[in-house]
Design brief:
The protein contains twelve helices and twelve strands. With 340 residues, it is an alpha/beta fold. Helix 1 packs across helix 3. The longest helix is centred in the C-terminal third of the chain and has 17 residues. It is elongated, with a radius of gyration of 25 Å.
């Protein structure tokens, strides 16, 4: 049988109400009493009934996380970080998979499963601004990911343009001048691919050069095969870049395979930079230089924002938060020429 509030109260020599006040972090408990109750909790191994606590507040204690592709290592790693952050905030995470399809993103955002969740963290790909504006009232929602929106929801996203410029600046500092960009998309300026391409152009222009548009390749997807095919397309045109900046790590890994098959050395002939810092990039025959978003910070910020929206009723003066979590350039073998 589990340890009860009564057991803790008897051990600490206080009332059950006092133990409840400590467990629920109510302020009107003296420091000495709080410490005595906490010692009793630790000694007995008491664990609060979180489900009962949430239900007393009219909540379920469940938040949903909807991502476009669980098979994508980046989203899998972010999902793991969100689950860890939710546990710290005493919530359980329900995972959903939208396949990056607008109709499914709409279904999730507009209240699907709203009867079992307190809030939603959504990472959209195809959802449009008008979809979010038209969203009916329902559980609070926080947006995740780099697509830009002008909608009344907190949004956690790294600065794509600045991050892309960091990647390209690294390649330029190495003396590379013909830098290909793999993974462009033309249908929406709000897409992160467009923003990363914008950063690619801006940094090249800032160094007094004309961006080599013939080295930009649009793709339908962002997987390893897409990167391999895009790299082959550049080489088959007779173009010879001396560096590649890929939309993400999976495309970069695919591009590296094509370069290997064409007999080109990495990084001596072609340096390669990816984006996302997925674990797979650490362990190839040539490890991958990448832009590394702080996934733990992204997850913690998303959960913090959502829990705050759940626990504090919104007011008309509330403004949505636009938060840029940190990122860093991680230099590995794909841009580090070996000497000797």
């Amino acid at each position: 049988m589990g340890v009860s509030l009564k057991d803790v109260a008897q051990r600490a020599g206080v009332s059950v109400k006092t133990v409840s006040n400590v467990v629920n972090d109510f302020p009107h408990v003296t420091a000495s009493t709080r410490a005595r109750v906490q010692r009793a909790i630790d000694d007995l191994g008491y664990r609060p009934n979180l489900s009962a606590r949430h239900l007393r507040k009219g909540r379920t204690g469940i938040i949903a996380l909807a991502v476009p592709e669980l098979g994508n290592p980046y989203f899998a790693e972010v999902a793991g970080a969100v689950i860890d952050a939710a546990v710290r905030h005493e919530h359980t995470v329900l995972l959903d998979h939208t396949a990056g399809r607008r109709e499914l993103e709409n279904l999730v955002s507009q209240g699907f499963r709203s009867h079992v969740i307190d809030g939603l963290i959504l990472s959209p790909i195809e959802l449009e601004n008008e979809d979010l504006i038209a969203r009916p009232s329902g559980p609070p929602m926080v947006l995740l990911g780099e697509r830009q929106y002008d909608a009344p929801y907190d949004h956690i996203a790294i600065d794509n343009i600045a991050a892309a410029r960091t990647a390209v600046r690294h390649l330029l500092d190495l003396g590379r001048r013909r830098i290909a960009f793999l993974g462009a998309r033309h249908e929406s300026e709000r897409q992160p691919a467009h923003l990363r391409l914008q950063g690619w152009r801006a940094e090249i222009e800032a160094n007094g050069m004309t961006p080599p548009e013939s080295l930009v390749v649009a793709t339908d997807g962002y997987g390893r095969r897409d990167g391999a095919v895009a790299m082959a397309a550049v080489l088959d045109r007779g173009e010879r870049p001396d560096a590649v900046f890929a939309y993400n790590d999976m495309m970069a890994l695919g591009a590296m395979r094509t370069l290997y098959e064409r007999g080109l050395r990495i990084p001596e002939d072609v340096a390669v930079v990816g984006f996302d810092d997925i674990e797979e990039g650490h362990y190839g025959a040539v490890s991958l230089t990448t832009i590394a978003p702080d996934k733990a910070a992204i997850a913690e910020l998303a959960v913090e924002c959502l829990v705050a929206r759940i626990t504090t009723p919104p007011s008309p003066s509330d403004e949505p938060r636009r938060i840029h979590p940190p990122y860093r350039l991680v230099v590995r073998e794909s841009t580090r020429v070996r000497r000797g």
